[in-house]
Every structure is written in structure tokens, then in C-alpha cells.
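Entry 14. Ran structure prediction on the chain below.
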Amino acid sequence: MQMEAMDLSWGARCAGAVYLVLSLCVVALAVVLQIIRWWPWCRCPVCRAYMTGSWAREYTNLCDWYAHLLRESPTQTIDVHVLGCTVTANPDNVEHMLKVGFDNFPKGKPFAAILGDLLGGGIFNVDGDAWSHQRKMASFELGSVAVRSHAYKIVAQEVETRLMPVLSGAADGGLVIDLQDVFRRFAFDTICKISFGLDPGCLDQGMPVSEAAVAFDTATRLSAIRALAVSPLLWKMKRMLNIGTERELRKAIKVVDGIAAVMIRERRKQGVASGKRNDLLSRFMASARDVVGDEDKFLRDIVVSFLLAGRDTISSGLTTLFMFLSKNPAVAAAMRAEAGSRRPVTYEHLKGLHYTHAVIHENLRLFPPVQFDSKFCAAADVLPDGTYVGVGSRVMYHPYAMGRMPSIWGADCEAFRPERWLTGPGGSFAPVSLYKYPVFQAGLRVCLGKELAVTEMKAVSVAVVRAFDVEVVGENACAPKFAPGLTASLSGGLPVRVSRRA
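Output, C-alpha cells:
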């Protein structure tokens, strides 16, 4: 027995040594790949600043550096050769990619590979027939009056029974709370109820830690880190060896998969017991019989895609909105005046709040939840501004930078001014071209949940500004710093002090 134990110990040490050697080989290969890729472009100041990280000396966030470069470019387009990427903030280029040349600018296999473990074959990660099929299904369901009515009732109920009591408790206790965390919990509960008919209870008074929410945060953060790798070979080798961030990502996705399976199983049970339901998962289940392949895998990818779209984008938009309102109390006062004292606030009443609608859009202009989006060029093309794009090249359009372009929004483009969205003596909301404001994408891939998202943000913001004053404290009160992720989130959260209004 002793000899067997020694053999096992020796085997474990050998395995550990092999694992260490392989890990060092991966690191060495990554360094070599970085040097090989960087060397031809080392004289390019943009590539050199990106590779060395020198941009961080002047800019808190990478997206601010990109915005600066794009403002300085005569065409509002730059090439980051070391990434093999063209970055643009030119509305004509955006329209060409998302409308005119739509078929030539798909998501592409490189993007699908980066997010494949998390999003699978979900609508945000596929092209061609798979995308078209899901798009038609989602368009039919989200366009349903029954679904929209059902969704608004859930949002109103969550605001009244969960969000407001949490904020009241913070106000009465004189507590500083992380408003970003509160909005994440609120959005997670809401999207689970709307989309899956299930209640995770993340925003209950005890503020329980949700394994699903934590795993989802980890998975989205680490999936985004893949996109920053100098070479995709690096993360692919780490995934093959199951080391580092890839090992952590695999664990997080395993949790996400398990929770998605539970949601699907519970929805099937409840659906059989209660008959027809309005939640989106039930409706997708009813139409999933036509799906070729694994129905459970298809539904799993639908669940994860809706979680990403419905939780992270809403919480991101609400977080930056109250960061702005803390700095602009006059805007909050104008929102209160417009909303009046009507209780409860109905869906029709919200639709008539043009100033509040403008506030939401102004916030999203400056802080879009998705700061940039990438496509891959299928066949060589020339963008409207004259930029040549080679076969297989990555082309990124940058909503964050576009919101800060004087050529689009004027000299005061960096100012938070909701009035820029209003026109006429009555102050009616006047939308702009989505190719100038691609916060919800545009063209054939325009966000189907745009109306639901804006309505949810309006419902929350009106309820909160009427009842509370929110003061941001800490570093993000001055210069927000973003954390890595598929959607914009503030590093360190948004600590606030909440006080009741008289």
C-alpha cells in the first residue's frame, strides 16, 4: 500500500510537471506570436500605443482613446494593423455595413468562435439561415401585443414590490449602496420573469447572491477577454489545455448551462400544468418543433441570448443614467415635472413622456451598453469613405465614439443635453438616423427588443426620480472607468447615497 501511495504521488508530480511545462510553452508561444504580429507595424504610432498600453497614460478607458483617434481622422476611420481591424465612426460606413452591403459583412466565424462557448448558436452569434430563422421567430413574438403588455406588467410590479423597497431601506438606513448591483439584480429578475416565467428573486430584501448571475458575469467577462488576445491561437490553446482564464470560463459556462437546463425543464412542467403562457420561452418552445437538430441545445442558446440582451444592457443603461442625473439635478427635476403625480404610471402615460424619452436616448448616446460591434468582410470591399477592406478583415463600428463626434452631434457633443432630441414648441421627441446612432444596431439586425428596453428604463427612472434623490459617491462620480465585458459596466460599481424626497 505504501508503494502504491508513492507511485501515485510520483505520478501526480509528473503530471504537475508536464502541466507546468505545457503552460510555459503556451506563454512562450503567445510572446512569440505577439512579437511576430507586432514587428511589421512597430513604427505605426497607433499599433505601438495599443501594444505597449501607452494610451492609458492619457485615457482612463480604451474606448475614449478610440474616440480621440476617430475624431482626429479626416474620414472618421482608422486602421489598427496589429489587430487586423478597421475601426469606423463614419455613419455612411455604418449604413454600408448594416444595410447596403449587409450580406458581405456577417458576424463571421472568428466572432462566432470567440463567443461560441457562451452563446452557442443563439441569434447574436450566427449568420445566414440560422440567424434568419431565429430572427423571424423573435420578431413575431416580440411584436405581439400580448407579450408587450405582459412584459410591462412585470416591470411595473418589480419596480413597486422590489426595487422601491430596496431603495427605501437604503434611504432610511443612511446606507451607501452599489446601484449598478441593484440594477443588475432588478434586470435579472425582470428578464427571467418576462422571458422564462421564472423568478430567481435576486432583488429580494435579503439581496441573496445568485449563482446564475455570478456565473453569467464571469462568463461574459472572460469571453470578452478572448477578443482582446493578440492571436486567437492563444486562447484556443489555453482552452485545449484547460488552463488560466479558459479553465475559469469553462466552469462558469457549466453553471450557466445547468441553470438554463433547469429553466427549460421547469418551464415545460409549468407549461403542461397551466396551458398557454405569454413568456417568451414558452412561445419559443411551441415553435421549436420545426428546429433541425437538438431542441434542448437550441432552447439553451435562446435562454442565454435573452439573458445577455435583457439583463446586461438594461442594467448598464440605468447605471449610467443615474450617474448623469446625480450630476444634473435640473434634468431630474424636469423629469418629475413631466411625469406629474399620476399613480400608477401606465404604459400609455409613459409613451407620452417625450422629455424622459430624450433623457434615455441622450444617456445611451454617450454611454451605449454595447460600445462597439464587429463584422468580418466576406469579399474585398471599399467603404463609402474610400477605405479598402480585404477579404476576411475585421471591421468595427464604434457607437461609443460616434456619440462623441462633432461631425454628427455638433461642438457640444460631449455635453449631456437631452434637449438636442426635442423639436417644436411642444418639445416632441425627434429620432435621428440609426446609422448615426447605432446603439440598437440598425438595418436588418436592428434590436427587436428596443421598445421594451426603453420602456423599462423609463418606468424605472420615473419611479425613482419621483421618490428619491440619488447622489453618486466615490471615484465614478467624476471619471467612470469601465470593466472588461461584452457590455459596458463600471469598474467598482456605482456607490450612491439615496435620500427620500419630501
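The two ends are 77 Å apart (CA to CA). Will compare against last week's run tomorrow.
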